[in-house]
Amino acid sequence: MDTQFLYIHRIILVAVGLWPYHRTMLVHLQCSVFSITLISFIIFQLTTFLTTEWTVDFIVEILSISLFNVLCAILYNSFWINTHVVKRVLKNLQYICSDLKDENEIAILKRYGYIAKCITIGITLFAMCFFFIVTLLPILPRIFGIFFLVNESEPYRNIYIRTEYFVDEEKYFYFILLHLYAVQYIAGGTILATQTVMLGYFIHFCGLFNIASYRIEQAMRISDEVTNRMNTRQVDKKISHAVDIHRTTLKVIKFYLYNFEDTWFLLIVLVVICLSLHLFG
């Protein structure tokens, strides 16, 4: 496989503690802290129901965001629990790819690896820009107050997601803001890491299917020129290799989907609910 592709995804997975190799105590601590951070923020969102009058708009606002955070928490812990699946799929892909000898087949795989790398870089850059903008939102009023001399009596400390910490939010504003930033980066990093890795896997699966198609085409070309028993054996051998890589790739895909099917079903349900709430709100 393309080592640069692996390198990019390794950086993203290491950043959120989901790289399936080198599971040290520090990595376990990192994952525990990330999970607790996500869950605690969900709790502090839901506690607003205890202190605020319930209205339809209020319920939709809280649930639409809290369910999205629940989705991220489920996704994070699912990948944490199934790191052996991610590791095994990666090993199988590396084994299949290392077994390739034909230069044209290697070129096909490199082309798909390049596509995966470009898509990953593009998504990562977009996510970084998005995080930068979201990071500025809570402090924009203060920035405008400094440069445009806004009346100081007007509050500039504003957090755009409702939470209830049962403390003086003005006094502990920066601690609350730090918690919000941590949740945003963990949730965003989780989505970025898991989805780009999954996308990269399936792009490489497409490359392997393309290689199987290439082997069939080569076998058909030889069959058109069959003049002796040796050529017939070459055709049988190439078709056998094509079927073998196709069958092996399908096994890897089925293994991956089987271990994550419950998670994806739950995530799809949450995504539909979140989108419905956002549209309703």
TrEMBL record:
Keywords: Membrane, Transmembrane, Transmembrane helix
Residue intervals passing through the bilayer: 33-52, 58-81, 118-140, 172-192, 263-280
Name under which the protein is recorded: Odorant receptor
